[in-house]
Amino acid sequence: MDTRVTTELPFYEAAGNEVALFEHAWKNHLPLLIKGPTGVGKTRFVAHMAARLGLPLYTVACHDDLTAADLVGRHLIGDGQTVWCDGPLTRAVREGGICYLDEVVEARKDTTVVLHPLADDRRVLPIDRTGEVLEAPPGFMLVISYNPGYQNFLKGLKPSTRQRFVSLRFDFPSAEREQSVLVGEAGCDPMLATRLVNIGRSLRALKDVDLEEVVSTRLLVYAATLIRDGLDPVEACRAAIVESLTDDIETAEALMEVVNATFGR
C-alpha cells in the first residue's frame, strides 16, 4: 500500500475532459472506474487529481492473494494485547480521502464485493470484526482501474461491481500529447521526444511481432530519461523499451531494427 499526501502537483498532460469528469464525480460522491492499457497514465492521473483536490491518497496494488481484511483491516497482537489496525480502504473512509485500487481485476471477486456498500448510494463501510458501520464523509472517493487487455473469463469485473461506477477510458496519447509528456516528465529536448514517439508509434503498428503488450508511454519516458542523462540513445532504447517488451531474441532484434533506423545506425 502506498499512502501519499502532497501539495505538489504531479505532472499530468490532459487528453480531454478527464480532469473535469473526475472533479464532477468527486463532488457528486460517485465512484470512478478507469480502464486502459499499461503505462498510459492511469495511476499518475489519480495522483494528480488527489493533489489537485488536496486529498490524501491510499493506493493499493491488487493481486491474487489480496483479501478483504487487507483492505478493511484486522486485529493484530502486540505487547500482550489485541489491537485493531485499519486497512487502507478504512483509513481513506475515516480521513475523507481517495482509495485507489490499481488493477482491481487481479483481486479475488469475493474481495471486491466489500466495495459494494461504498460504491452505491449507501456510501458505508461495514466492519464486521468491530461492529462498526462507517459512513463515508463528503471528501471520500473510491477509484479503481484495470487493463481491459488482461481480462478473461476468470479475471474480470462482475457486472454488479462494474455498474456501480462512472467509467473513464484511457488510451495511448496522440503523437503531439505524447511528445509533451516526454518533454514535461523526462525533461528531454523536443527533437528527442519526437524521435522516441515515432519509435513508439512504429512499434505499436507492427503486425508480425508477437508481443503481449505494445510499448507504453511510461517506457518512452524511461528511455528519454536515460538518454537525457547521457546514455547512448540506442542502448537506452534497448534497455528501457525493447528488453522490457520481450524475452525472445529474434523479436528483440526485429524491434531494434526500428530503433536503429530512427537513430541512423
UniProtKB/TrEMBL annotation:
Residues of the ATPase dynein-related AAA domain: 31-165
The UniProt record lists the keyword Lipid metabolism: no
Signal peptide: none
Residues of the CbbQ/NirQ/NorQ C-terminal domain: 178-261
Single GO MF annotation: ATP hydrolysis activity
InterPro entries: ATPase_dyneun-rel_AAA, CbbQ/NirQ/NorQ/GpvN, CbbQ_C, P-loop_NTPase
Pfam families: AAA_5 (PF07728), CbbQ_C (PF08406)
Keywords: ATP-binding, Nucleotide-binding
Cross-referenced Gene3D superfamilies: P-loop containing nucleotide triphosphate hydrolases
Top-level lineage group: Bacteria
SUPFAM superfamilies: P-loop containing nucleoside triphosphate hydrolases
PANTHER family per record: DENITRIFICATION REGULATORY PROTEIN NIRQ (PTHR42759:SF7), MOXR FAMILY PROTEIN (PTHR42759)
Family: Belongs to the CbbQ/NirQ/NorQ/GpvN family.
Protein name as catalogued: CbbQ/NirQ/NorQ/GpvN family protein
Organism: Denitromonas iodatirespirans
